[in-house]
Amino acid sequence: MKNVNTRNFIVWGIVIALLLAMITAASSDVQGGPSDELTYSQLQERVESGQVESALIDTEGGVITGTLTGGEKYKTNIGAINLNADEIFEGTDIPYKFEERKQQSMFGSLLMGLLPLLIIGALFLLFFRNMQGGGRGGAMNFGKSKAKLLTENTQKKTFDDVAGVEAAKEDLQEVVEFLQDPTRFTRLGARIPTGALLVGPPGTGKTLLARAVAGEAGVPFFTISGSDFVEMFVGVGASRVREMFADARKQAPCIIFIDEIDAVGRHRGVGTSGGHEEREQTLNQLLVEMDGFEGDEGIIIIAATNRPDVLDKALLRPGRFDRQIEVPYPDIQGREKILEVHMKGKPIAADVETKYIARGTPGFSGADLMNLVNEAALLSARRNKLKITQREFDDARDKVLMGAERRTLSMTDEERENTAYHEAGHAIVGLNMEGSLPIHKATIIPRGRALGMVQYLPERDQISQSRQEMIARMAMAMGGRAAEELHFGYDRVTSGASSDIEQVTRIATAMVTEWGLSDKIGPIAYKQQDNGSFVPGIGRGSAISPDTARLIEDEIKRFITEAHEKALEILKKKKKDWVALAEALLEFETLSGEEIKTLLEDGTPPKRNDGSGGGKPAVAAVPTTRKPKPKPIGGTSTAKDIDE
To answer: From residue 110, how far is each of 27, 107, 258 by CA, in Å?
Structure first.
């Protein structure tokens, strides 16, 4: 960057110097010093009275200049009479002479004529260079490769730095072995895969995996983004591809990593405008270069994308990207290993257990877990702690998922009581339903758009769910609405259960139309269109009959109604536990799962040493997957929530 700024400073200095030269040349004929303007008659009177000391006649310029006897300068425009200007001085002792102008050289005339063109050209080159990324060589290197070369000593990564993607590492181990000893494979006539395509959601470690392969093999690593190939000028991207592969052959064996390859590798034949033509030419050149590899070149391409469906088929055929390696979200064991990697080198307290944090973070990517550890460290620093404790990890997880606590939110006593009984209803129904998840904690502290929530801690990652578990989830979700009806009456039910009702409706609809869990509908899949109607199969064919549509709606309503009735039944039966939990939430605001269990079994209220009322430091929690709810019309959001 320093060199770029220096070059820009030099260019602008040249431009300014040329401008100053033009100004100087244009004003070269202007004489210095002030002078009195005299008419021809006034000059004649001064000559006759002997007040003129000297005179210089410029016939070409039509002026007479000189000095008066007092030392003052004068100037007289003689105009059309300049041919006889010397007559005024004849018969006097005043010395005068005619000015002899030097003929301007041809070089000077040429320079004066070219100066404007030189300035315009310099400005054009400067702007053109900046527009195309002046720090990369300017206009002369416009078609050069933008790939960055990382050697084995530059921020070296190995498979030890990558956790949670064991299957992907095993698939890439063969690439490492080939780069370390290619003759081991080629002497048997084996053809080494040309490229590997890493496919997975953002943040799962695709780029880190590619760098780890280069680090394990100890070879140079070229990295570039797919968008770096394509420019507005046709042919530039293809030139950069050729240049990149030429550089790679000089460094072979090596790895070329193309991130977000879908930017250049999309299906061809879409559009005919300039931008599409350039992209397609770039893709064609990439295909040619990959197909032209020889077995002993030692160059392997690793590309990454989260949109494999849009890639051109020619990229995915054998001989180019031979293998597609899935890099999914890590499972619970993978999350535990990723947390250990990111915790390395940080002051972690003895009460921190990574397996509990991993249990409470299903669906987190490697990048999410790195952010979680960083947020926990920031919270510890803000609280003036010397080590990162389990409480910081729990609070950081809640902050990442649902936003910061809103303790400054003004709530009336009635709203706090409503929230406490609402969340207690969720918890009590969940504790008394077969197939429900263990409760992690309940809180009435506002966070994000929720005024309170009950969080659940799964024992494992749930790949699929049984009918019993789905019914339990719906009943737990309706527990808050049922609690408001029982404690405050039907007319005082609030809009706080809006996300709960949305969640239950989504589950019931899927049970009826997708998962075949309705006895009346049977194992038939129906797709709901944008207009609300259903069609059989995957959306093809004619719409279903009105009777079938009515039956689907009735079944969805039946599932939701039964869940609501089950929640009412449990709360009526367990009213003592429900009220006790609600009163404890009003007093302590947050209760952990162990505190809730002790309260309901022994009637023993929580014991707080710090008096914070913030709850016992928790181990982990299920992340909420709810979507932010819109603000109800005519008032402030009073949304309560449970985790899905």
So the answer is: 17, 5, 52
Residue 567 contacts residue 478 (beta carbons within 8 Å): yes
Q: What is the DSSP letter of 201?
A: -
595 is catalytic: no
Q: Which two tokens stand for residue 324?
A: 């597609």
> What region, left, alpha or beta, does residue 54 occupy, with left being phi > 0 and alpha being psi -120 to 50 degrees?
beta
Closest CA to 230 of 153, 283, 290, 157: 283
Q: What is the pLDDT of residues 595-620, one digit of tens each?
A: 888 888 887 777 765 444 443 333 33
Gap between the Cα atoms of 72 and 601, Å rounded: 115
| Angle, CA of 327, 329 and 335, to the nearest 5° | 115
Query: How much is the CA Rg of the chain, to the nearest whole Å?
Result: 41
**What confidence tier does 297 reach under pLDDT thresholds 50, 70, 90?**
low
Tens digit of pLDDT for each residue in 301-311?
Answer: 888 888 888 88
Whether 300 has a pLDDT exceeding 80, the answer reads: yes
Question: Is the pLDDT score of 296 beyond 80?
Answer: no
Eight-class DSSP state of 348: B
The structure tokens listed for 252 are: 């072979």
List alpha helices for 1-105, DSSP H: 2-26, 40-48
C-alpha 312: how far from chain center: 25
What letter represents residue 598's amino acid?
A: T
Residue range 182-205: mean pLDDT, rounded:
81
Residue identified by tokens 């700024």 is 5
- Kind and range of the H or E run holding 13: helix 2-26
Regarding pTM above 0.85, the answer is no
Active-site entry in 280, 392, 415, 423:
423
Q: At what angle do helices 593-602 and 575-588 cross, to 10 degrees?
A: 130
